[in-house]
């Protein structure tokens, strides 16, 4: 008997590990192949898919999927892959910029350490704050554009960016 994806998600929300495992087995290899087509890195692709499944299990009681589960699963992994590529490209651009300014290997190492610490601090932001912060700082979206895209007031966007910056300063100060 083949259980529908929607039924599996409902059972997963009730902490049914067997249903979780069934959903995992149903999509894991296809998701890895799909993410690989974006990242061109097997290990990274597997990490992204495993991270998706881990988050799905951790947040199983909160996950509400409206519509097609398969689309949700693939879209989530695609977004994670694109975020990974964006983060890697940002790191590379920053390092290249510093390399062009003839800085020492030690300074480059310090910058890599700083960027790793920054990435970890950003990852700890609440999901909505992280989304707003990344859209503003890395995707160069205006506060007004973020507001329209996420259907949140500009004041809330400003507040989330400010709080995110405060948290990042504090987080990086502890490193």
List keywords for this structure.
single chain, 175 residues, mainly alpha, 8 helices, 0% strand
How would you summarize the topology of this molecule?
Blueprint: H1 5-13, H2 17-39, H3 42-58, H4 69-100, H5 105-123, H6 127-137, H7 143-150, H8 154-173
Helix pairs in contact: 1-2, 2-3, 2-4, 3-4, 4-5, 5-8, 6-8, 7-8
Explain what the structure shows:
This protein starts with a helix and ends with a helix. Helix 3 crosses helix 4 (69-100), helix 5 crosses helix 8 (154-173) and helix 6 (127-137) packs across helix 8 (154-173). The mean pLDDT is 87. It has 175 residues and is mainly alpha-helical. The protein contains eight helices and no strands. It has helices at residues 5-13, 17-39, 42-58, 69-100, 105-123, 127-137, 143-150, 154-173. The longest helix has 32 residues, at 69-100. The protein is globular and about 60 Å long.
What's this, in brief?
The protein has helices spanning 5-13, 17-39, 42-58, 69-100, 105-123, 127-137, 143-150, 154-173.
Instruction: Give the total of beta strands.
Output: 0
Which percent bin holds the helix content? Answer: over 70%
Low-confidence stretches: none
Number of helices: 8
What is the structural class?
mainly alpha
Sketch the topology as an H/E string, one letter per element: HHHHHHHH
The percentage of residues in β strands lies in under 5%
Cα(first) to Cα(last) distance is 53 Å
Describe the oligomeric state of these chains in a short phrase.
single chain
What gyration radius follows from the Cα positions, in whole Å? 19 Å
Biggest sheet architecture = none
**Mean pLDDT value:** 87
**Shape from CA axes?**
globular
